[in-house]
Fold this sequence. Notes:
Strand order of the largest sheet: 4-3-2-1-5
Distance between the termini: 46 Å
Number of helices: 7
CATH topology: Hypothetical Protein Ychn, Chain: A
Number of strands: 5
Structural class: alpha/beta
Helix content: 40-55%
Radius of gyration: 19 Å
CATH class: Alpha Beta
Largest sheet: 5 strands, parallel
Strand content: 5-15%
Order of helices and strands: HEHEHHHEHEHE
Amino acid sequence: MTTLEAEENQVQEVKKDKKIKKICFILSKSQMDSAYAAMVMANGARMEGIESEMFFTFFGLDAITKKKMNDLHQPTVGNPSFPFPAMIGGLPGMEALVTSQMKKEMERLDMPPVEEFMEMISMSGGKIWACKLAMDMFKLKKEDMVDYLDGVLTIGDFYERAAGEGTHIIFI
C-alpha cells in the first residue's frame, strides 16, 4: 500500500467517525416554503437512518396546530425570491395565487399535505416538539396541537436533547 492509499484510508476512517447521527430542526415561521424545507430534510434524515427532531417555536407552531397546519401560505411581500417587483407582491390576491400555485406544484410532485407529511415523519421515528414559551405566548394548549406531538419543551430541554457528538442544529 502506498503512502497516498494509507492516507486515503485514514481520511475515510475519520469520516466514518464523524457521521451525522442526529439533526434537530428549529422552525420559527409558518411560511409554506419554510415548513416544507424542514419536513423534507427531516424526512430525508429518517430515510438515511439519522435521528431527526423538530422544534416548533413562535409562528412555526402553525405547522403543528390542528386548526392552521393545512392552511399555510407563501408570502409574496418581503420575499426576496419573489420573481416580480415588490409592488406586484402586495396586490390583493397575489399571496393566495402564489400559495395555490405552490400547492398545485407540490401535488404534481406527489408531496403530501403538511398534516400527512408531519405524521409520516412522526411514524418513522422523528420527534416533534412544541416550544413552551411560544405555546404560553399564543395561549395554546397541547390539545390544540397534532395528536402525535411528542411533547412541549423549554429551550433548555431542547438543547439537552440536541447535545452530543454528531448532532447538528438547523434553524429554518
